[in-house]
Amino acid sequence: MESEKPTAIDLFCGAGGLSEGLVDAGFEIKWAIDNEEKVKPTFEANHKTNMVVGDIRKIDPPDLDLPEHGLELVAGGPPCPTFSLVGRSKINSLEGQNNIDDERHHLYQDFLRYVSHFEPKAFIMENVEGMMSAENKDGDPVVEIIKSQMEELGYKVNVQVLDAANFGVPQHRNRIFFIGNRLGRENPDMKKWRTHRPPKNEKEKKIKFKRNYKEKTNENQMTLNESAGIRTEEQLPVFKKNKTPKKPWTTVADAIFDLPPVSPDGEIPPTKAEKYEIGPVSEYQYWVRNIPEDTDWSDMPLWNHECRGHNMRDLTLYKLLGEGVSWIIGDIPEEHQPYRTDIFPDKLKKQNPRKPSSTIVAHLYKDGHMFIHPREARSITVREAARLQSFKDTFKFPVARTHAFKQVGNAVPPLLAQAIGTAIKKEVLKK
Predict the structure, then answer these.
(1) Is residue 125 part of a domain?
(2) What is the main EC category here (predicted)?
(3) Which of 21, 120, 128, 299 sits 20 to 30 Å CA-CA off 173?
C-alpha cells in the first residue's frame, strides 16, 4: 500500500536540516546516512528515522531494505568535490562499484549512484555556490558536467543558486541546488517561491513584533481588515508559488533578541540559560519556539543556550565593534589589532541586528569571532546559531558544544529545505 506521504531518503544527512525541512513539507524520511558518528545522536533525537553511520562508498543500494522504484525523492548535500578533477565519466558505470581507492571518485557520484538505482521521481542535490564558476582541469564547467550526468540517468534538471534569506531564514546563505525529475515535468523555479525580499526602508529593518503570539491566523479567511485592504499577519511559514506581498528579510533581531542574556563567566547573566525569561515578541520567534497547543512558553525548556569562554582581550575588542557603526576589525585602530587586516579583514565581526546574519559556517566551532552578538560582548551560542539557520528551539543538539556548532554550520537551513520540498511536492509530484 502506497504511503500517504511522499517518501524520501537523505544522503550525507548531517544533523538533519534537510530532513527537517522535508518532513515539514510533508515528506516521510525512510532512511538517512552520514559518515560522521557524532551526528547520529542529534539526528535520532529529532527524527523518527533510523540513521546509519557509514561510508556511502561501501554501501550498495541493492543491500538496503528499501523498495527499488518506490521512492519519490532522493535528497542530499555531498561534500564538495575537487572541482578540477570532475570528469565526464558515465554514472551508470558506477553501479555496484566501490571506487574508494580511485582518486577521481567523488561523493556526488555516489549520490547519483543511488539515484540511478532507486529511480526516484525527483531529487535535490545541494552544494556550495562556488561550483557555479568552477571548471575542471580541461576547462569544462563543472556544473554542466554534473548536469549532463544527471540527464544521462533520464532526468530533467535545472540548477539554481538560492539565498536562504529570500525564504524567511534570518541569514544570507547562497547555495547551489540541482533539482531533477523523471516525470517530464518542469522543475520548480524557486524564484517564484520566495516569501521574503530586501527591506524597502529603515522601518522594515526593525524587529517585526507579533502583537499576540497566541493568535493563530488562517490565511484562507478574510477578516474585516483584509476586506478593507489591510492585510493581517500570516502564521509562519506559508510557502505558495508567486506569493504576494512578500515580507522584508527576517533579521538577527527578529531571530534571537528574545533569548535571555548569557555571559562567559558570571552569575548574572549566567553562563548557561535553561529557561525563557520572556515570551516570543516577533513573528519568527513565535514560530521558532514551536510552542505546543495549550502549552505556556514559560513551561518549555531552553536547549543549547550556553556561552563559550572568552579572554579579556577578545571581550574588550568585542565591545569596540559598535552596533550599526563598525562591523569588522578593520575599523579598530591599528595599534589594537590582534590580526593583520590585509589578511584577516573580517576576523572579528559583530552581527547587525537589522539585517540577516552572515553565513553560519562549520568552523564556528573553532572560534566565534565572526559571529559576535550584536548587543552582548560575546560570540553567539549554539541555540542562536541554530535559530539563524532556522532550526526550531525544539530541535536539540545533544552533543558537545564544539560538535553542535559544526553540525549547525554544515546544515541546510530547514526553512529553505521546506520551501524546496513544498515546491517539488506541488509542482512535480502533484500532491
Answers:
(1) yes
(2) transferase
(3) 120
Question: DSSP states of 201-252 as a string?
Answer: SSGGGS--B-S-TT----TTSPPHHHHTT-PPPPPSP---TT-SSPEEPPPH
Q: What is the pLDDT of residues 134-143, one digit of tens each?
A: 888 888 899 9
* Domain CATH for 86: 3.40.50.150
Q: Write down the pLDDT at residue 322.
A: 66
Grid coordinates belonging to 127 = 552544494
**In this predicted model, what pLDDT tens digit does every residue of 253-292 receive, in sequence order?**
999 999 999 998 877 899 999 999 999 999 999 999 999 9
Q: Which residues, 6+ apart, have CB-to-CB distance to 373 below 8 Å?
A: 350, 351, 379, 380, 384
User: What 3-state class would DSSP assign to 7?
Assistant: strand
Mean pLDDT of 35-44: 97
One of 45, 66, 80, 128 is an active-site residue; which one? Answer: 80
Contact 12, 18 (CB under 8 A): no
In the block, cell 548531517 appears at 14
Q: What does residue 293 show for φ and ψ, rounded to 5 degrees?
A: -60, 140
Other Cβ atoms within 10 Å of 167 Cβ, number: 25
What are residue 422's phi and psi, to 5 degrees? Answer: -65, -40
68 lies in a domain?
Answer: yes
Residue 399 has pLDDT above 70, yes or no: yes
In a domain, 221, yes or no: no
- For 299-324, the three-class secondary structure string (H helix, E strand, C coil) is HCECCCCECCCCCHHHHHHHHHCCCC
Q: What is the mean pLDDT of the chain?
A: 86
> If you ran DSSP here, which 8-state letter would residue 342 be given?
T
Distance (Å, rounded) from C-alpha 76 to C-alpha 13?
A: 6
Are 404 and 382 a contacting pair, CB within 8 Å? yes
Instruction: Name every residue whose Cβ is closer than 8 Å to that of residue 259 and which is 6 or more positions away in sequence.
Output: 273, 276, 302, 305, 381, 383, 384, 387
Please state the domain count of the chain: 1
| Residue 80 annotated as catalytic | yes
Specify if 185 maps to a domain. Answer: yes
- Which range marks the domain in which residue 163 is found? 7-195+414-427
In whole angstroms, give the CA distance from residue 119 to residue 115.
5
Query: What b-and-e string marks burial along 30-58, b requiring 16 or more CB atoms within 10 Å of the CB?
Result: bbbbbebebbbbbbeebbebebbeeebbe
Pairwise CA distance, residues 292 & 360, whole Å: 28
**3 state DSSP class of 382:** helix
